[in-house]
Design goal:
The chain has 261 residues and is mainly α. The protein has two domains: 2-36; 50-86 and 95-258, no CATH class. The protein has helices spanning 2-24, 28-36, 46-72, 76-87, 99-125, 133-161, 164-184, 186-194, 199-227, 232-258. Helix 4 (76-87) packs across helix 5 and helix 5 (99-125) crosses helix 7 (164-184). The chain is globular and about 50 Å long.
């Protein structure tokens, strides 16, 4: 009887211990989930990262556009003066022109134009016309180098073959052309950043605007060269050495950097 009582007294202790172990034990399925993916909500896809970079680029363009609009708000004569510089061949002062405001707006417009042309270049060199924030940043950098070198080439060419007045007119025509290009390319370049199903259309529009601006500037350069009795051969050499070769080098470098294979 004592043994039976002892067994009956110990059975509840073992039962309690078994129940406590059963309550504290983690199910195998839950343990597997914890080891496999501790914090699944912290994972960020690559597409989200690239969209974030493109958003910052768009914010920069929007800030530039707002500053430019604010600068032209009470000074529309500067805009007309830049339009006049595109086709002007005579040095003629304007008493109503504000060179400080015009210079600031011209610089901002050219910076915006560089960014937009960099976006166009990124779309052109990217495989399957898919641009990423990294590619856009790289191509903007390459086009900024191109935009900084080209005016120096124009200046050197003008010093060799033209006088100071026509060199100044030529350079002003270049910066004014790029300024209006920046205005016209704002909307299609934003469409390129976020595609929205219009990537090919926006890219084609950007290329057409860029080539049109180049043709207008080349026509002004042609008139200036011939007004100074410069031979055709000199103009063709300038066309190849200054207009075509730097553009091809920029495109090739950007293409190899974006698509190293």
């Amino acid at each position: 009887m004592r043994n039976t009582d002892t067994d009956s007294l110990h059975i509840p202790d073992y039962t309690v211990m078994a129940d406590s172990l059963a309550q504290d034990t983690v199910p195998p399925e839950m343990a597997l989930v914890i080891v496999k993916d501790p914090v699944p909500t912290l994972q960020v896809s690559e597409r989200d990262v690239q969209t974030s970079v493109n958003s910052w680029i768009f914010i920069g363009l929007a800030v530039l556009f707002c500053l430019i609009c604010f600068g032209f708000r009470n000074n529309m004569r500067s805009l007309k003066s830049m339009l006049h510089d595109i086709g002007n061949q005579r040095e003629r002062g304007n008493l109503f022109d504000d060179p400080v405001r015009k210079g600031t707006s011209l610089i901002l417009l050219n910076i915006m134009s560089v960014c937009e042309c960099g976006i166009m270049l990124a779309m052109a060199v990217s495989p399957d016309m898919h641009i990423s924030g990294h590619n856009v940043s790289v191509c903007i950098g390459f086009f900024a180098i191109y935009a900084a070198v080209i005016p120096l080439c124009y200046l050197a060419t003008g010093k060799i073959f033209l006088d100071n007045i026509h060199t100044s007119l030529w350079l002003r025509g270049h910066f004014s052309t790029q300024a209006f290009l920046g205005i016209l390319m704002f909307v299609p370049s934003v469409l390129l950043l976020f595609r929205s199903g219009n990537g090919l259309f926006a890219e084609s529009l950007c290329v057409i605007l860029f080539l049109t601006a180049k043709i207008i500037f080349l026509y002004k350069g042609l008139r200036i060269f011939f007004s100074q009795n410069i031979p055709w051969l000199i103009f063709l050499c300038y066309l190849c050495a200054v207009e075509i070769i730097p553009a091809l080098i920029t495109y090739t470098c950007a293409s190899r950097f974006v698509c190293p294979g």
